[in-house]
């Protein structure tokens, strides 16, 4: 596996430094997903098994969806904006930049030792100890190895949380990032007590009715351009209100667009507190992270996100144009 140039230690080095520290605060990215929360909580249980004091933060005061709420320890997550604890060390899990730490950036500043354990490739680094492996399908895979490096025998809670991270970041072992390492490590997690069926039910068969109603609206607004392989849609503030939906209810929408035959790239834009949030997904080799970066966002080649400072109509038209251009670049390369 190839770590980034910003990586300045290995997992043994991180584990050795962590052993010397008594209190930790862990945090992932805004708009948290299964890998972000699953990695954090798996590491929380492992550090606690070593007798450490550990708090887990939410980068922003967002409601968690039902899948995330199913993870053991999720009820202990506190919003960073209301956290006034004092920990020696800050561990950023699945989050590469201070911007994506949002309210937790201030907490990070207050800690004397900082770590990043992540799989998002960025050109900067924000911690004293950085371990970033973009080839890892999920941060949970890295955390799983870190647990081993810490000398902790993984228990059922650690296994369940880490498995949830791996399962969600690989789309249930279906995305391009799914490789032999995912299956090998998943098998270890199942041996340690993770239940694939329970985890899949909690994350993939647990959708709110509001989310299904929001999907109807999303489909009404969808532009499906099969000639170019692009599907793009949006949901407005009014759509959220009419469906009684919260932010997390919009998460599954992108999967519906992506699942359509002939769609190579899917995009969803959502009106969100005065800005527009976008999710981009590629089924072929189109690099949607590059497109997201054009708008100040980022992510992975096949799954990326962005925040658009402006109106929804402009966001749809600008993102559509950028994606069409990325699709034609790929076409030209053959
Ligand atoms: P999602 O569309 O589910 O919000 O995000 C897909 C992927 O892109 C995730 O790995 C997420 O961390 C990353 N991502 C989403 N939004 C942003 C953003 O604004 N900036 C960066 N750097 N990454 C993002
Ligand atoms: Mn991740």
TrEMBL record:
- Using the record's annotation, list all stretches that form the DHHA1 domain: 249-323
**Domain DDH, chain residue ranges per copy:** 24-165
Molecular-function GO terms, alphabetical: nucleic acid binding
Q: Where is the signal peptide?
A: none
Q: Which domain of life is it from?
A: Bacteria
Question: Which InterPro entries did the record assign?
Answer: DDH_dom (IPR001667), DHH_sf (IPR038763), DHHA1_dom (IPR003156), Oligoribo/pAp-PDE_c-di-AMP_PDE (IPR051319)
Question: What is the official name of this protein in its record?
Answer: DHH family phosphoesterase
Species source reads Candidatus Aveggerthella stercoripullorum
């Amino acid at each position: 596996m190839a770590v980034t140039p910003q990586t300045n230690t290995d997992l043994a080095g991180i584990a050795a430094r962590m052993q010397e520290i008594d209190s930790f605060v862990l945090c992932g990215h805004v708009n948290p997903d299964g890998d972000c929360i699953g990695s954090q909580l798996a590491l929380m249980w492992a550090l606690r098994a070593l007798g450490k004091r550990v708090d887990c933060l939410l980068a922003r005061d967002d409601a968690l969806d039902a899948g995330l709420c199913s993870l053991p320890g999720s009820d202990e997550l506190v919003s960073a904006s209301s956290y006034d604890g004092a920990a020696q060390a800050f561990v950023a899990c699945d989050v590469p930049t201070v911007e994506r730490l949002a309210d937790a950036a201030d907490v990070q500043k207050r800690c004397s030792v900082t770590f990043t354990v992540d799989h998002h490739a960025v050109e900067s680094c924000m911690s004293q100890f950085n371990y970033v492996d973009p080839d890892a399908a999920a941060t949970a895979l890295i955390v799983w190895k870190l647990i081993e490096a810490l000398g902790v025998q993984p228990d059922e809670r650690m296994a369940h949380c880490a498995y949830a991270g791996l399962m969600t970041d690989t789309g249930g072992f279906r995305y391009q990032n799914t490789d032999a390492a995912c299956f090998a490590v998943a098998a270890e997690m199942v041996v340690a007590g993770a239940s694939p069926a329970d985890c899949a039910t909690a994350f993939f068969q647990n959708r709110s009715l509001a989310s299904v109603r929001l999907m109807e609206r999303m489909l009404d607004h969808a532009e499906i351009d099969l000639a170019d392989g692009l599907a793009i849609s949006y949901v407005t503030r009014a759509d959220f209100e009419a469906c009684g939906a919260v932010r997390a209810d919009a998460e599954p929408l992108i999967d519906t667009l992506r699942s359509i035959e002939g769609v190579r790239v899917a995009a969803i834009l959502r009106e969100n507190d005065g800005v527009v949030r976008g999710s981009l997904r590629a089924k072929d080799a189109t690099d949607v992270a590059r497109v997201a970066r054009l708008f100040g966002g980022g992510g992975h080649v096949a799954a990326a996100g962005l925040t658009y400072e402006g109106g929804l109509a402009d966001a749809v038209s600008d993102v559509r144009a950028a994606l069409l251009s990325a699709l034609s670049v790929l076409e030209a390369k053959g």
